[in-house]
Amino acid sequence: MAKITLDNLAHSYMPNPGSEDDYALKELNHDWVDGEAYALLGSSGCGKSTLLNIISGLLHPSQGRILFDGKDVTQTTTTQRNIAQVFQFPVVYDTMTVRQNLAFPLKNRGEDPKYIAERVQQIGQMIGMEATLDRKCRGLTADAKQKISLGRGMVREDVNALLFDEPLTVIDPHMKWELRTQLKKLHHDFGHTMIYVTHDQTEALTFADKVVVMYDGRVVQIGTPEELFETPAHTFVGYFIGSPGMNVLPAQVDGTTAHVEGQAVPLGAGYAVSGKKVEIGVRPEFCTLTRDEGLPVKINRIEDVGRHKIVRARFEGHDVNIIAEEGQEVSADMTRVTFDPAHVNVYADDWRVAPHGARKGEAA
């Protein structure tokens, strides 16, 4: 296990990058705590896999350093870093049995045969393949092969970090849930530092202690699921986390009031805002349909998803999504929406603005 430090790290796939836009991974400076489980979350092309491959040693960064427990490992190989990595598509040896595949990393390290047998049996049970341990891998389904690949990544107990690059893409939905549960149990039992790349917010939020949200080659927020939901540090985090995502509306902010297309919206605190683009963001869960107060909206449709209803509305050309809990009244004459002031965030040039009185780094 290791504390992972990203020191002035950046990467471009161009030989001579001329500007920041030429970098697939823009400058990062972060410490990732020893023994925590992290998820790298973002849309395709945001730099998740680039960062993972730099951490693992498969890719050498254009600038900066990677440190494990304070030791510079930037020039070292994956083997020297003592990393286990599981890729999006399964990598198994078809001519070997499931048991031999799982045992392979331990045999390469010269581990005691008794320990290998016990550990392989344990991992076989963990991935639900005890009954097929002595079967050759040729002819197994893609999801079975990926389970073997996951098991081989987890079989070593002394690794500095376990890295997963969208490993559940080929797994059926029920097995995804089971394997995520097993990965969390493994982390709880052994305390490995784990980094899990995904574009699926459900996978990220259910797996990780901390979620690292990436956008356009940057880390825009690192936080717990609650922090990402309650106080998105960037409008992208608001869009990407949640279903539906956060409502974002252009505004002029004056102290404790925002003005949206001439309509006043009360805020839960006072703000001093400067920036070319000022917006407010409020999640659908903190929006309420009313008859006689709030922003006037036109309701386009109502989607009943069982646990609640999603009301799709428009205000002056802007989409506004409202979540009405089960049993909450929704009627044709409810054509206005109010926002809970305590849950309205203010953004300047896409970054969240802290209210008056909040200390630096505080989420208030």
TrEMBL record:
GO function terms (MF aspect): ABC-type ferric iron transporter activity; ATP binding; ATP hydrolysis activity
Print the keywords alphabetically.
ATP-binding, Cell membrane, Membrane, Nucleotide-binding, Transport
Record-linked CDD domains: ABC_Carb_Solutes_like
Gene3D superfamilies, from UniProt?
A: 2.40.50.100, Nucleic acid-binding proteins, P-loop containing nucleotide triphosphate hydrolases
Q: In its keyword annotation, does this UniProt entry include Repeat?
A: no
Any one Gene Ontology cellular component term annotated for this protein: ATP-binding cassette (ABC) transporter complex, substrate-binding subunit-containing
Q: Where is the ABC transporter domain?
A: 4-241
Give the transmembrane region(s).
none
Q: Would you identify the family this protein belongs to, as annotated?
A: Belongs to the ABC transporter superfamily.
Its name, as the record gives it, is: ABC transporter ATP-binding protein
Species whose genome carries this gene: Thalassococcus profundi
